[in-house]
């Protein structure tokens, strides 16, 4: 009997183990199904989204953009745009000014500085006074290691909220004196991103602005809203306040009155030939250009996210620096000749095959303090004849005398050289080319 009983137990034990395993498996499967159900429900809520367009969107900040666009965010984070304005408390190394240098121009110390503006050509500084931010009256020029006056008199206070804010910070409300983020961040160009973050699946594109998807005029206006000069329609602000939330959709002209060469009262901003006299007017030049007519826009030539160009190999140090400064997709001639190809060099191009397209068609028209040059963006050749008629290079610069080699060559001699070069490829008699 004992043997039979032991034998029965041997049969029962596997059945018990099997039952326990089955119960455990059922529990695991049930738990998994329940968790999966909850997860699917949660994901469905997330994927449901709320928006199909970008109307009435709000600013969310570039850190939110980073969650999905990390690589682009990191490229932008090291670009000049991101460093246009920096908080010295959050980033003490943002202040690159040489405050140990004695200066009769600078009357303030680093301890009063709240924000820095810029870092490439020169750096300017903001001081907080109550709710206002005031631009301090001296600039530090980084390459030359010099301090220069920024304002005509130290008694004058340049009010940042009125004159500068819209192009140095993102999500600016100058009335309430607030902004979402320092620097030219993602939403400064792509518009407020809250609707994009909560877009209905399949509607990610219409809930944000991408310049590459716009017509050439609207695309260029995104850059042009800062790279210009003028006042908003109220006449109070030096930037288009309401355009910030309508970039890419609305016409900049409805929000901003630009200075114009055609208006006599704005002649102080332009040379007689029409090119700009000052920096940050590239958009005004571009509108006069043949590029504008055929749809070649800012982003065609410039890389707005990256701090370096796409091709930088085989460049010496000075050329590499120029490429980084201008943020062009290719360096100078390589960029121009990627579109402008020719079998032969004729006329004036015959004697400039060693030179640069940019040096002749984008000559220096202004100096950015002591640090760098502002170049024309009309892409027209600036003739020495115009300088001769205006009465000197100081009254009208030209492409020939802007060259270091020819900076001291008499203007009338440059006119003669140019005429001789053109006539070399003209069939005789030359008078046929003067007939209408």
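Sequence proposed for the structure above (436 residues):
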């Amino acid at each position: 009997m004992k043997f039979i009983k032991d034998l029965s137990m041997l049969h029962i034990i596997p059945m018990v183990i099997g039952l326990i395993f089955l119960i455990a498996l059922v529990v695991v499967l049930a738990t998994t199904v329940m968790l999966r159900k909850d997860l699917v429900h949660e994901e469905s809520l997330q994927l449901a989204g709320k928006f199909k367009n970008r109307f009435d969107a709000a600013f969310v900040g570039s850190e939110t953009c980073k969650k999905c666009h990390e690589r682009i965010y990191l490229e932008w984070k090291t670009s000049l745009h991101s460093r246009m304005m920096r908080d010295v408390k959050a980033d003490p190394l943002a202040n690159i000014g040489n405050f140990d240098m004695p200066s009769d121009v600078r009357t303030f110390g680093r301890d009063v500085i709240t924000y820095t503006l810029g870092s490439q050509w020169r750096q300017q500084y903001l001081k907080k006074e109550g709710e206002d931010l005031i631009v301090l009256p001296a600039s530090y020029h980084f390459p030359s290691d010099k301090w220069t006056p920024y304002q005509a008199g130290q008694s004058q206070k340049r009010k940042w909220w009125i004159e500068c804010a819209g192009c140095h910070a993102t999500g600016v409300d100058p009335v309430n004196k607030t902004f979402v983020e320092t620097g030219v961040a993602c939403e400064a160009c792509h518009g407020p991103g809250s609707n994009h973050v909560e877009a209905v699946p399949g509607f990610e594109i219409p809930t944000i602005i991408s310049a590459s998807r716009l017509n050439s005029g609207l695309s260029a206006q995104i850059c042009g809203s800062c790279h210009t000069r003028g006042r908003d329609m109220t006449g109070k602000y030096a930037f288009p306040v309401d355009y910030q939330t309508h970039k890419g959709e609305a016409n900049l002209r409805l929000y901003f009155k630009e200075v114009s060469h055609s208006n006599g009262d704005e002649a102080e901003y332009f040379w007689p030939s029409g090119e700009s006299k000052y920096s940050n007017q590239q958009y005004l030049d571009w509108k006069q250009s043949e590029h504008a007519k055929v749809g070649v826009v800012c982003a065609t030539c410039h890389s707005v996210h990256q701090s370096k160009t796409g091709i930088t190999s085989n460049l010496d140090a000075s050329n590499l620096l120029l490429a980084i400064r201008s943020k062009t997709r290719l360096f100078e001639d390589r960029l121009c000749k990627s579109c402008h190809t020719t079998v032969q060099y004729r006329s004036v191009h015959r004697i400039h095959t060693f030179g640069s397209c940019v040096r002749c068609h984008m000559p220096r028209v202004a100096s950015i303090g002591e640090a760098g040059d502002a170049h024309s963006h009309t892409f027209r050749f600036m003739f020495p004849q115009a300088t001769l008629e205006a009465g000197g290079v100081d009254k009208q610069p030209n492409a020939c005398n802007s060259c270091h080699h020819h900076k001291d060559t008499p203007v009338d001699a440059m006119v003669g050289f140019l005429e001789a070069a053109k006539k070399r490829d003209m069939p005789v008699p030359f008078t046929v080319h003067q007939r209408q």
